[in-house]
Amino acid sequence: MERKTSATRLPKSTIVSYAIGSIGTGGFSTLPGLVLVYYLTDTLKVPALAAGILVTAAKVWDVIIDPVIGGRSDRDLLRHGSRRRFMVIGAVLLPIFFILTFVVPPGTDPVIAGGWVLVAFVLAATAFSLFQVPYIALPAELTDDYDERTRLLTWRVVVLTFAILLFGAGGPMLRSLGGGKNFTGYLLMAVVAGLVIGIGLYLSSSVARKGRVPETLEEPASIWDNYREGFAALKRSQPFRALLGTFLLQGLATGLMLAGAQYVATWVLKSEDAVTLLFVALIAPALVAAPIWGKIANRIGKELSFVIASVIFGLSALSLIGLLWSPGEWVYAPVAIAGAAYAGMQSLPMAMLPDVISHDAASNKDGKAGTFGGMWTAGETTGMALGATVLTIVLAIAGYQESSATTEVVQSPAAIQGIIYSFSLVPAVIILLSLGTLARYKLRKGSIAK
């Protein structure tokens, strides 16, 4: 294999600066997905279906705003030669709104509490998008090299998986240290996590200075132009539609499992703290597996590697249906296998996205990476939001009983079964559907490699 020259290899400082951003993006994507619905149903006494509607409404706003932020990010790049300004604003504002999401005063009426969480979380999600959309656009501008993008995104996912472990396991631990699922528990969790997220995002924003302005980039005339260009990119780029559809479906599956993990720990494994062990089992293998998936992709291609990772994850999720008959510690083994596969499901499509953007730029003389980043983030957000929605629908149908921090309830066998199905069979079926969209992705290394 031909060795990359120093001229084509990204500097280590760029790799490190870009990867650090995943401490913040991984934290914000993981912790609310893990605890927010549970916070609403089991601390604020918001009914399960209403909790799902609230979380989904916040994410719908993301879908609306992300294409606009993508277009505005392209405009900033054109005017200032960098996407950094939006990234810094997002990094500064996100911790404030994140903390506000989890400080609803004890005894607040469930309707008011739900409205409080909705407004605060919408603002937090908006701040996150200000960082995330330009962050997603950067790899296509940092390097033109097919394999260097794999290297850049592989190390990003190594940090991302570490962040998922840090926040997925550490968040509930902080909550327990603060007194459990009450006001002080969530306050301690939100303050510490919010500050760490903000610091990670701010430090990573410096990598935007290394971006370049595509010669073909034009400034959009209006907000409507942002939507028009986003949907135009989706319409003209078949590889983008296939990749985004796959990532959306897989985000739905993983978002469903993420939101359900706390319920599995509490009601199936009979320990709220078991969610920490679930995350250790999921992410520890992923830390090791992410670089391995990068090496596999260099040998057999990103596309086939992505298929393999998806199949392994789907089969591992399906095996968890055994919790219906024998709940116990055996669950950590298939979760660990799923974690190893999850590393590939994250790093490989994100390494394929810059290829899609470059292919579109070469085919259509268009350099609007921010537009693609906005549509990608909107699709990813939609998948994760629908995961929480599907969970709450299953819980509502199964008869799940909400509660407050000071009351205890007993869940019916049907409710327990609903929790298990949402953690096993349902995500496995969704992964199977995602393989259908992935089969439509026809872009290969020979099409875009330089």
Describe this structure in words.
It is a single chain. This protein has 450 residues and is mostly helical. The chain is built from 16 helices and no strands.
Give a brief outline of the structure.
This protein is mainly alpha-helical and 450 residues long.
CATH architectural grouping? Up-down Bundle
Mean pLDDT: 83
Give the termini separation.
15 Å
E-strand count: 0
Figure out the total of helices. Answer: 16
State the CATH class. Mainly Alpha
Fraction of residues in β-strands: under 5%
* CA-based shape: globular
The helicity comes to: over 70%
Parts with pLDDT < 50 across at least 5 consecutive residues: 1-7
Q: In the CATH scheme, what's the topology name?
A: Growth Hormone, Chain: A
The structural class is mainly alpha
- The CATH superfamily appears as MFS general substrate transporter like domains
Number of domains: 1
Helices and strands, with pairings:
Blueprint: H1 12-42, H2 48-80, H3 84-101, H4 110-137, H5 139-142, H6 146-177, H7 183-204, H8 223-236, H9 238-268, H10 274-300, H11 302-319, H12 332-364, H13 369-398, H14 413-423, H15 425-438, H16 445-448
Helix pairs in contact: 1-2, 1-4, 1-6, 1-7, 1-9, 2-4, 2-8, 2-13, 3-4, 3-7, 4-13, 6-7, 6-10, 6-12, 8-13, 9-12, 9-13, 9-14, 9-15, 10-11, 10-12, 11-12, 11-15, 13-14
